[in-house]
């Protein structure tokens, strides 16, 4: 479930049957909910229901389970509040909102949230090492997981086994990594050529026309059609942080004994209490 599209598809696949139950289970909430299949998938969740919790979702990385979603519950805010100290995806993706001002410009008030900080680099690294990064097994390959994380990338595959990596700050996505590619330099070149600011490289001077812009939905390095999937190094097709529709109102939930579908189980006192916040969806574990 590390592939975004697979998580999205989990909400629309064939209705699920659990333990021989006679009724089908499908995603129950309307499209006007803040928590939609797309926003939940982008926040790291896939659909993992049971007869008792028909809207239960699970984070592919940390195993966090949430259910009983209310109309205004925001998957990004809730995931970050509950798992921001231990889940790499919650840190690098869902926490982006906390780094932005009302104009969607990056303003880092916490030094540990700076893109070049060790905690953020460590979280990005975990997106590569979670299920294995193919070039870590190639001797002297320059695009190792550590170098990719240091360069500001997270692993963002569009299909199992590909090597697409994305900077969530500026939207640059690159694939087709060669043994002598320097991830930092490749990233830097794309930022310079696009003219779009990236907080990974504050030393790069951006023209005035871009200074007050928000991060774009898509940028392209070539002339490929926008509908085509990203392929070679140099293409750039990643999404940027989604704007918040409403303030999260997640409440402290009751706990359940059901184990997560992932082997990486949630731990810690916060999980036993169910996390912070008030109102809205509840934690299952």
TrEMBL record:
Any transmembrane segments, and where?
none
Name of this chain's protein: Inhibitor of apoptosis repeat-containing protein
Listed InterPro entries: Baculoviral_IAP (IPR051190), BIR_rpt (IPR001370)
**GO MF, any single term:** metal ion binding
Q: List the taxonomic lineage.
A: Eukaryota, Fungi, Dikarya, Basidiomycota, Agaricomycotina
| Family annotation (PANTHER family) | DETERIN
Q: Which Pfam families match?
A: BIR
Keywords in alphabetical order: Metal-binding, Zinc
* Highest taxon in the source lineage: Eukaryota
Q: In which residue ranges is the amino acid composition biased (Basic residues)?
A: 14-26, 253-265
Compositional bias per record (Polar residues), positions renumbered to this chain: 1-13, 234-247
Task: List the biased-composition ranges (Gly residues).
Answer: 275-285
Region annotated Disordered, chain positions: 1-26, 179-198, 215-285
């Amino acid at each position: 479930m590390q592939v975004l599209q697979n998580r999205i598809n989990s909400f629309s696949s064939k209705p699920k049957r659990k333990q021989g139950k006679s009724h089908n289970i499908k995603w129950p909430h309307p499209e006007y909910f803040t928590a939609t299949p797309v926003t939940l998938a982008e926040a790291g969740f896939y659909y993992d229901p049971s007869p008792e919790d028909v809207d239960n979702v699970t984070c592919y990385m940390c195993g966090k389970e949430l259910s009983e979603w209310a109309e205004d519950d925001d998957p990004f805010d809730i995931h970050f509040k509950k798992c921001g100290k231990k889940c790499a995806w919650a840190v690098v993706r869902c926490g982006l909102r906390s780094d932005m001002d009302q104009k969607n410009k990056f303003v880092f008030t916490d030094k540990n949230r700076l893109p070049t900080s060790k905690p953020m680099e460590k979280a990005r690294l975990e997106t590569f090492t979670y299920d294995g990064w193919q070039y870590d097994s190639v001797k002297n390959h320059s695009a190792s997981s550590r170098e990719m994380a240091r360069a500001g990338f997270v692993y963002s595959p569009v299909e199992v086994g590909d090597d697409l990596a994305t900077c969530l700050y500026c939207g640059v996505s690159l694939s087709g990594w060669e043994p002598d590619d320097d991830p930092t330099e490749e990233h830097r070149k794309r930022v310079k050529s696009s003219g779009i600011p990236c907080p990974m490289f504050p030393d790069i001077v951006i023209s005035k026309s871009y200074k007050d812009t928000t991060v774009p939905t898509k940028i392209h390095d070539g002339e490929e059609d926008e509908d085509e999937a990203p392929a070679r190094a140099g293409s750039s097709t990643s999404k940027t942080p989604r704007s918040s529709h409403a303030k999260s109102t997640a409440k402290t939930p009751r706990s359940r004994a059901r184990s997560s579908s992932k082997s990486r189980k949630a731990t810690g006192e916060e999980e036993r209490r169910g996390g912070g916040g008030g109102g809205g969806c509840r934690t299952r574990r």
